[in-house]
Amino acid sequence: MLDSANIYSELGHADTQCAEQLTELLPVALQKHLATSQDVPRALTDAFVAVDDHLLNLPFQALDGFDSMTIEQIAALPSTERIKIRDMILPALSGSCAVMGYIGKEDVYVAHAGDSRVVLGSMSNSGSWVASTLTNDHQVGNPNEMATLKKEHPDELETVAFRHCLDGPLRVIGGLVPTRAFGDARYKWPMAVQHKISALMKGLPSRRRQWPMLRYCLTPPYVHARPDISHVTLTPQDCFLVIASDGLFEELSNEHVVNIVGDFLNSSQNKTNSALYEIRHENVATHLLRQALKSGKYDDRHVSRLLTLRPSECRNWRDDILIQVVFLKPALKFLNSTLTLNTLPKLKE
């Protein structure tokens, strides 16, 4: 048996419904595919693709005859019915990156779509901590992702990716930073479907935003949720995995993240505070989050305030930061009994 650890961009893009659906659908889909195949990479890939296909098909499930209806017929539906349909398809209209790690007795498999990361923390023979990245960022700034976009949209080289402003990141057709994500149907649906959705949404009470047609969306899809799969065979030196959204790595490098968690483990073994980082929390993810915020422009007082904000308020001050730290069996030698009970995953044989 395998145990899983997952991160979904909880705040998502343009609302939270997609991420909320992933927490329910993706583990179930993976279990379904593993039941018919022990090929873990294939099962992970098939689960990701199946869940995204489900999200993109929501309009056809929410409205009988959607495929054959005209734009005028959809626009003429009563507003109460259109609101009901809109609410049913919100998981497709919003979006989320996702990363799923599967851990066996000697293996780790990672599936990811988007710009979250998985970093493996290991101890070298000299006693220093070593960071190994198990994912690549799926962003337009990644040359491989950019090359794929240009290859798939050869007549749109000027508009397939550009910046909002001079110092901003490259974005897919000027909108989305990640090149892979669940939902985000504005970048995937055929234009005929998008025009129908625009008619459906027109004039409805706003749920944060209306359905803006993307100016340079000419030949979708531009974004997909097919994951990259990585695999590593664990060694006695491999102590933990850090699975986190891109907000963490905007503040800290991979090496910095591993050193912070490693220093946390060292302090747990020695039962003393680290010389490098003040250990305030038994929860290593909270400790890592605090260090990430302190590395930026915030002092201790502002960090404490940021930690008390509701998820919906965080985006006004910083990017969302979601963190999961998975301690592997070699980390046992560092952890005291309390930390072991609270943070060490129970790996099934």
UniProtKB/TrEMBL annotation:
InterPro entries: PP2C, PPM-type-like_dom_sf, PPM-type_phosphatase-like_dom. One of its GO terms (molecular function) is protein serine/threonine phosphatase activity. It holds the Pfam family PP2C. PROSITE patterns: PPM_2. CDD domains: PP2Cc. It comes from the Eukaryota. Residues 1-328 form the PPM-type phosphatase domain. Coiled coil: none annotated. This is PPM-type phosphatase domain-containing protein. The lineage of its organism: Eukaryota, Fungi, Fungi incertae sedis, Chytridiomycota, Chytridiomycota incertae sedis.
